[in-house]
Each structure stands twice: as structure tokens, then as C-alpha cells.
Please model this.
Amino acid sequence: MKLIRYRHDDGEGIGLVQGDKAAALASADLRELMLDGVVAEQLGIVHPLDQCTILPPLIPGKILAIGRNYAEHARELNNEVPAEPLVFAVMPSAVIGDGNVIEWEAALTSQVDWEGELAVIIGRTARRVSHAEALDFVFGYTIANDVSARDLQTRDKQWTRAKGLDTFCPLGPAVVTADEIPDPQNLRIVTTVDGVEKQNGSTADMIFSVSFLIAHLSRAFTLNPGDVILTGTPSGVGKAMNPPEFLGEGSVVSVEIEVIGKLTNSCRML
Ligand code: ZN
Model:
């Protein structure tokens, strides 16, 4: 199933995407839908997608992100390929949806970069789960842009501000349930800025697979339904370009992952 969260004249809801329409489901909240397990109860109301405002699929409880999970991306920024996953957290308050605007204060950062990533949505409580069973805890997959202020990332030494500024975690538009992606390690991921391709990678090239990451993270944190894991970005970020390229006023950045869809946001400097 492909699911979206939307706002329409008659309120907010979760819709089952069917072509260019969304069939309203009984649960209006993705987490509630996971816990109920009543995934497909339909209300008999269908909205054309172009009459809906697409909302982020959910506001995660926590967002755990992985740095340098593609060898070529680690190398393009002159970093070592890590021996174990490099884990950091992103503020849930940074989440915006497809079509929302990424914005920042020009006085705060002048090096705003893109990172297209596969996002994993946890569907069941996971604590110390094994690599072999880890994918059973996945509700579905969506798309993330791990927007990064490179100057703050360097200056702050850690990444709370660089990756956690308001609007810096676009997520969505749709969630594709795990049954439709039995192998998350074989998905093409392409990022464009103003229509020009910047990143073109495959989740096959992750150093640590989705199942490895879930097992690893679940040893440190209880993963709850609605938590999200950002799995790292392939090579082709702006900082690695010669000369470096960054997002600016009016830039339009899209991240497309096959089977899942395309996440597009424009940029505004304050
Ligand atoms: Zn990232």
C-alpha cells in the first residue's frame, strides 16, 4: 500500500493512494493505524490528490540518522569509511512535508546542502532485535532530505543545529508499506536541484544495511512505532562539488526513490 497524510476541506486524514486519488482510511493518524493493525479500513470517500494538501506522513517520536553510510560519500568529504554506524539525532520539529518550504536565516548559515535519503518508519516496538528479524519491525519506507548547514556542522563539532534547524527534515510524500519493498537494498535514489541531477545512487551501496541499522540502533534505544531512521546519503552532495554548491533563495530540490515517489521542496532565505 502507498499511504499519504493529507488535509482536505473536510479535515485531515490518511489516504490510500490509488492512481491520482486517495481513498480516506478510518485512521487519521499513521501511528494509530500501525497500532490498530487495521490498515485498509476505508471510509468510502475518495479525494483527487490535486485537491489535497500533502502533509508529512507523521511527526516522528525520534529521528535517528546515520552519517557516512555510503563509502563514496564518506570519501567525497575526505572522511574515513566508518567501522560502525555513525549515529546522530535529528529534531522531530525539523520535519516538513512535500511542497513545504525549506527556510533559513541568511545570517545563520550560508552553506545549506542537500542529502537525499531512504527513510525507514518503525511499526512495532523493537529492543535488542536481531539482524535476521529486524525488517519485521518496519512499517514502511518514505523519502527524506537530510538538509545540512555545512558551516554550522563544521563549527559546532556536533550536528544538532546543522541538521536540526526548523524545516531541515523534509519527509514524504508517501509511505510505501514494507510488504511492497521486501528488499530495501535495491532502490535507485536520485537528487536534483533546479532540475539538474546531483546524486544518483543505489541503496545497494549502503555500508550498513537497513536490517543491520535496526538491530544496531535497537541495542541503544527502544525503537517505537513512528520512529524514523534516516539511512545516510549517497555521493553528490553540494559541499563536495568543485567549486562547492549550496542551496539558495528559490532553489528547488527533489529527492526521488523508485517505488516510493518524489519529495520536492523549494528554498527561502530569511
Ligand atoms: Zn544524512
Observations:
- The longest strand covers residues 261-269.
- Residues 67 and 86 are 5 Å apart (CA to CA).
